Amino acid sequence: MADQRGAQKLNEAIFRSCALKKATGASNMIISDFQPFEGEHCETVAIGNLLKHQGLELSEPMLFGIGSGLGFIYWKMKSMPLPFLGGRTKTLGRNICDNLRIPFEEQETTSIAKAWRNVEAHINSDRPVALQLDCFHLDYFTQKIHFAGHHVTMYGYDSTNVYLVDTRPQGSMVTTSLESLTKARSEKGPMSARNRSVTVSFDPAAIDIKSAVVRAIRKNADEFLNPPIQNLGYKGIRKTSSEIKKWYLSSSNLKGDFSHAAMMMEHAGTGGALFRNLYRDYLNEAYQLLDFDYLKEGHERFATIAGKWTEVSSLFSQVAETGSSKPLDHASELLIELSELERAAMQRLGEGAGNA
Asked: What is the 8-class DSSP label of residue 164?
């Protein structure tokens, strides 16, 4: 009932806005000349769209690296069938803006009506908006799982739909109903936000990419090497190595749990196909830009690291396919090795950036 009332309020607000625009002869509600930023990871795509529209277009690996994005988190709640393994920092978008010296303009509210007005005002001013929401409610998502840490860019709306940019695997330029957007933005639970929206405004000519690269590496290394709790950074990877064998014993759906974990690691979280590869490619771009030996060395190290994460996710898939616990023994050994490899790699990068 609450969802229905919220959707009704939102539709009424949009109807009034559309009627006003029609009466005054105002332009339509899709940002003119909008060109999407395309990529694989939701938050780099969302922030990439904001920056591109302002005149600063960077590659997705560069955005991830400038966001001091490499991280690790082992997160377990009683309501979760398996722990969540995250391979990136929580504050990626804010870090991108901080390291580029760009204001991070954020709005949050528990009011559905105000949340819409916040977004509408920017769209009507030809400014795209990044939104955090739960992808479960989005019409175009075929895999219906609750994940309230998803990010999209909104660049227009009409009386029934909103126009979004999501990741390339989700279709890039997509639409979803106003009702679904309301539910997605106001969803409660783990990793959720209070109808969060983000915009940026800056002069692209004033951006110093070289300084941002060094600043970002220094920050990333410090955070990764000095986690406040054992679940984070290289310590979290080592902890995971001793925890994964317990998953097998506690799982009531081995095939579903471990195939989902493998997919999340390889395509949406920690694995070599996403975050470690992004950081590897970032270090290569940084080396081409700055010609520092420590960046070349870091690139080579993370090329090896990324491949080993892919191997871990493959071993998880083997558990799902065979029902055997034996692949977890090898995965545990690999995670211990990865913990040390990443610790050493980030220490070298931190020292190099600190002396730059």
From this structure: E
